[in-house]
Amino acid sequence: MNVKTIVGDSGTAWSYDPSRRIGDPGGMGEVFRGSDPTGAAVAIKRVTLRFSTEADRRRREREVEIAAVLALIPSQYTTPTLDVARDGDDLFMVMPLARRSLAAAIKAGDLNEAARLDALLQVANGLVELAAASVLHRDLKPANVLEHDGRWQLADFGLARNLQEATGTYTFLGAGTYPYMAPELWAGQPATVRSDLYAFGVMAYEVLTGSRPFAGPDEAAYRHQHQFDTPSSPPGAPPVVQRLVLRLLAKSPSDRSPDARAVEEQLRRTASQLTPVQTIIAERVVEHSAQRAREAAENATSLAEKESNRQRVRQAMADLKEIMDDSLDQLQPVEPDARLDGPAKLGWFPAVLTLSSSDASVGIELWDETQERIPDDTMVLAGELNINSRYDQRPRLVANVAYELVAGRLKWKVYQFVMGSPQYDYGASGTVARPRAYKYGPSDRAHGLGAQTFLDPRERSMMIHPVSQHAWTLTTRILTDDIVLALFSQALALSAPDQGP
User: What is the CATH number of domain 4-272?
Assistant: First the structure.
């Protein structure tokens, strides 16, 4: 045995064996089985200073400060701290030795329905006590709920925050455990009482069913599930409890229960026997709650998709502006009066960027990004590319542009079409009647397509999945300043005086 002794602030000598660890090490330290001078068993938590900075030192001391705050209020459902000791870079906290954690009880499966509801009620009482002390737990989960003498108590306040402090300095912003983190925490917002209640909702689901509402398994999956997926009602739980859990798992904090006292009161009411009519009403209320949860999740997904699309549009406009600015830089040494006009603002449609001089211009007009897309289309924006000159004022639609995925990255591409294989209309006898007219543009040169044709699902599908024969043949290239200058040169050649019509 390699027993170590520490002396607490109380002057008591405590012993522990580093080889007798309790549970797995957590982000805020590890716990060992220890004893007091009489040999009575205790739990000793060791937190090691990770970085020799004042900020890290203050964060490490946070749990001691929270313990001191909790010691000032009457408490039955939070684990007390018996003593604190320091040894070099190690901080030690001495606590009563728990029989087991709620996580262990869930895994063992030895809690009947009454015991499960009683455990949740006691945890809710613990949250009420935290509220009385103005403390947020910020890492509520079954592993941090311990059983002492038949009572469940909240433990591990390493991430907790005292709400009476004016700032969150020296706390861990966005910290928590992925399966229990509220949607607003994933969005970078600060924790609130209702963030703790969301974690309680996840825990309640796990206590009642043996599994969590969201299965992960990794950070990205949990982020998406907490923010956008709809939780199901916990099967087998009383209808009133099902409704409570769904409310606690609401995506918006304002849709959750207002505080822990309201949760505790709701759980306490479930202890009374419901009449048949009350049971029917409660079941129907659960159905309505589940529908509201689905609608909220769908709304969150829709808003996220709209915001994501807005960001892609802004990026598309910024990338296109950069290409056109580079083109202007290349053009001005030989065409000093060249300029770039538009757009009025990013994201405004129709958006037009025009590189022009007194003799010619290259213009890109982008279409409204709300056009319907086919399912496998990665295109964010599209538009048409026109050229003209002072000698030929008719704009020529020479190409299209589209902002879409290219080798895993969004880039601007140029689309140019030329007449492909001849198409024929056949007579009733199967003989060739006549060549079909080419309706997509000029038959003697490369061209672009109008918005209605380019965005037509059938035509767009053939651009993405080419077929062997079609009325047009497609060539695509990555849009660069060299291509823009080549098109500007082509514009200068339109009906120049010495070239005739």
Answer: 1.10.510.10
